Amino acid sequence: MEVVKILIPLSSLSWADSASAAAIRHACSPREALILFKSRLRRRPPAAASLPDLYDSNAAVFTLKQCSAFPVASESRIFPSFHALLLKTNLLSCIHVSSALLHAYSLSSLPNALLLFDQIPNRNVVTYNTMITCHARRGNIAFASELFNQMPQRDVASWSAIIWAYLHSGNPSHAFFLFREMNLAGKTKPDPLVLVTMLSSCAGSSSSALLGKSIHAYIVRNRLSTGVQLGTSLISMYAKAGCLNSAFYVFEKMPDRNVMHWTAMICGLAVHGHCDEALFFFERMKPAGIMPNEITFTGVLNACRHAGRVEAGRNFFSTMTDEFGLEPGIHHYGCMIDLLANAGKLDDAFSMIRSMKIEPNVVIWTSLLSACKRYLNFEMAEKVIAEVLQITEPNDDGGVYTLVSDLYALGGRWNDVQKVRELMDRLRVKKKRGCSSFIDRDGLRSKVDSSYRR
């Protein structure tokens, strides 16, 4: 999320509409943009050489912004070259030019950004905000907090930047503390994107939902507009926390409901196993003039998966392509494979994997393999094991090897169990800590305590 905006004076409009700006806008590389900017400076009157011209400074900001949009800009020396040119032409003394360069450095080079920040004599809110965001993006929360505390003045972007920093560093409690501090200050209102991020961090548990409710109360109290993102985040927060009545209340209060709002309700209901309610919402979409998207169908298929509705799942999976022209993705296939496998329809699940238009991943194969273990279908397990071991990453998918070993043990194939364990040792397969189990030669399942060192 970007919370820093480069402010360009209104007088820059004449530059942005000029032929030079058009050429820079269509430049193929940052270096070409810099060359075009230099050619613009060469046409400047000699009398203006020692005094930064507003037209030139706006041109510099515009060019820096265009250069920052190139992904290769961070890999080249374009910004140091630009920096040298701005020093030579005295344009760097303009605060909005130095702020634009600082923003460019913040995306590509922290050392250069720090050096420039120290050299700016007339730092303003924008320069501080840029550096706070720069540190936050790299996880340097202590430095971001120190800069925030040093600020003589703060605006909404300042609060938004530091709150966002703590949220993305995995410290939502301090983010909410800052949110309350900002409310007590009473002079600023947070960026809607920060509210969206805060609501997302609340989703998932009833205790976190209490914090989400306080944000909702803040939104209502300050009469903030609940646009698409904010409205969707509120619904998702309540639905994922199991507060379905509150989610429905927010949904019903939305003046202009779109596919995101409907989808948030369907997915929330599906997660909590309310299949009938999720499908009811889906059926209401078409009369309301709302077309479902891929995420909507993920929620619908997930609802069928939770309820074991095999035929309903098949119908919705077909409807997705036949009626709405949507191509199934890995998540849609994952729901269907899991649905079929859990219902004991292992042959159907295997056939669907074989017919997939995209490459099946480890999760897809493991879902079927787990069902083979549950239904003791060793013939199908042999086919799946041959496929899954070809794509398994030892460092990431250690549980797959354990599952294969368990299957061989259940079938009494102890030589194969030994081979799998030797393979795990040879590949240095990482097993997750926690309470696991193994099956001994007598067919008895024994628990291994989490303190056992593997």
Automatic annotation (TrEMBL):
Pfam families: E_motif, PPR, PPR_2, PPR_3. PPR repeats lie at residues 124-158, 258-292. Keywords: Repeat. Coiled coil: none annotated. The keyword Repeat applies. GO terms for molecular function: RNA binding. It comes from the Eukaryota. One of its GO terms (biological process) is RNA modification. This is Pentatricopeptide repeat-containing protein.
